[in-house]
Every structure is written in structure tokens, then in C-alpha cells.
Design a protein that fits this description.
alpha/beta; five-stranded mixed β-sheet; 3 helices; 5 strands
Length: 102
């Protein structure tokens, strides 16, 4: 299961560079895909570990995002979730999916 941090709930939306602050995540297992809401994106403290826990409950094993802080990195490692970081600022979700599937 793969997750991509997203700015909006649509495939033409740009990836959100901020992992823990992304309002949505696009998740897909290759057959079924959907967007989930990040209920922690507006919280002040301990956002990253809670977001990682949310993704772990969705059985995510890879995350594509722009930036990951030290707390997020540690939590992702603990949960065996692989990180793929992209630095392309305005890359859209559907463009990422094309890259993955080609």
C-alpha cells in the first residue's frame, strides 16, 4: 500500500511537501485507491507520530512526500514504512502515479 501526501482530494492536486501537515493522503494498493483525511494536520504537537500511526492502520508500507522531520523519520522506520522523497514542488498526484507505473 502506497501513500502520497496531497494538498487536495483530487488526482490533479499537487503533492504536499509537508508530510505531517498534509491535509490529505492518497492511498492505493494498485487496485483500490482513495483519499483519506489527515485529522492531525492542524495540531500543534506530536503530529508526525500520529500521522504515521494513521498510515500504519491503513497498512501503508511506502510514503511519497517532500519533507520528513526527525520524529516522522523515526516513527516511519519503527513501522517499517519506506520513504520516497520528491523535491519537485508542484508535481501532481497523477504525475507521480505515471512515474510509479511506467
Amino acid at each position: 500500500m502506497i501513500a502520497i501526501s496531497a494538498t487536495e482530494k483530487k488526482l490533479t492536486a499537487p503533492m504536499d511537501l509537508r508530510f505531517g501537515r498534509a491535509p490529505y493522503f492518497y492511498i492505493s494498493d494498485g487496485e483500490e485507491s482513495r483519499f483519506i483525511v489527515n485529522p492531525y494536520c492542524q495540531e500543534e504537537n506530536n503530529v508526525a507520530p500520529r500521522v504515521v500511526e494513521l498510515l500504519a492502520t491503513e497498512r501503508v508500507d511506502k510514503i511519497i512526500t517532500g519533507e520528513i522531520g526527525p520524529k516522522a523519520h523515526a516513527s516511519l522506520q519503527k513501522n517499517n514504512i519506506q520513504v520516497i522523497m520528491l523535491e519537485e514542488e508542484r508535481i501532481k498526484i497523477n504525475q507521480i502515479l505515471k512515474k510509479i507505473n511506467s
